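Repro:
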Amino acid sequence: MTFSLILATIGRYDEVRRFLESLAAQPHRDFELIVADQNESNEVELLCQEYSSTMDIKYLHLDRAGLSFARNAGLRVAQGDVVAFPDDDCEYPPSLLDDVREWLDGHPQADLLAGTTRDRATARITVARYDAEAGPINCNNVWRRQTSCSIFVRRKVFDSVGLFDERLGLPDGAAEDADIVLRAVEAGYRTWYSPDIIVYHPRPLGQLGPSGLARAYRYGFGIGAVFGKHIVARRNFRMIPQLLAHLLRPLGGCLLYSLVDPTRSRYYLRCLAGRISGFVRYRASPRRLEGS
C-alpha cells in the first residue's frame, strides 16, 4: 500500500521540520510527500531538499494561497493508493502509517478512514469533539468523526467525487474536509471512524483573544457554508437537525456567559455569526469547480 501525503503550508517552517522528522521515523516507507508551498520565500523548498535523501518528496510552489487550492494541486500529481492531508503543524506518531495500512488491509471494504487528533505532550483531544466509539460516518455525526489531518482516503474516492471545493477552506473559511467526507457518503462510499488512529496536533492558542475570535468566525463560516451547500444546493434535508444544533449550541453559550464572562460570550457570538453568514452566503459558482 502506497500513501500520498499532501502537505499544504504557509507561514510555518519549524513546524514543517518537526513533521518531516516524524515522517523520517515511520517504519512504513512506501509513501510520497507532496509539499504544496504557498510561501513567498524558499525556506520550505530548502527544507525539502534537506530531507529528499530520506524520503520521496515532490515539491510544488504555488502562486496563491488557499488550503483547498493547494490540496487540489497535490491531488493532481498524487500517485498513492491512499491519500492523506497532514496539517503543517501536525506530527505523525511513529507507527501511524503502519497502523493505517494494517487497518485498511483488514477492512478492504472501507474507502475512508478517519481518526482523532491529540496533543503530543498531554495526549488530550484537540481540534474537534470526537466520539469515544468507533463506527461509520454519516451526515449526522460527520462533525464528531473527522478532521482533515487525520483522514486517509482511497484514491478512487477522489476519482469519483472530485477534488476539494475551493470555495471552502482557509484562509476564508474551513470545513472543506467535512464536505469531502459528506460527498463520499452521499456517493455510497464506506466511511469509517476509529479513535485508535491518532495524529498529533497542538491545541489552538489564544482562543479568546483577537486572533481566536477571528478564527472562530472563519471556522464558523466554513461550517455554515457546508450546511448551506448540502442542505440548499444538494437537497440533503437530513442535515437540518444538525444545522439547528450547530446554531443553538453557540447561541446558548453566548447567552450563558453574557453576564459572567463577556469575553467568552463574544467568542460564541462570533461562532454563531460565522455559521449564519456561511449558510446564507454559500453560493454555487457560475463556473463549476471540480468536486462541487
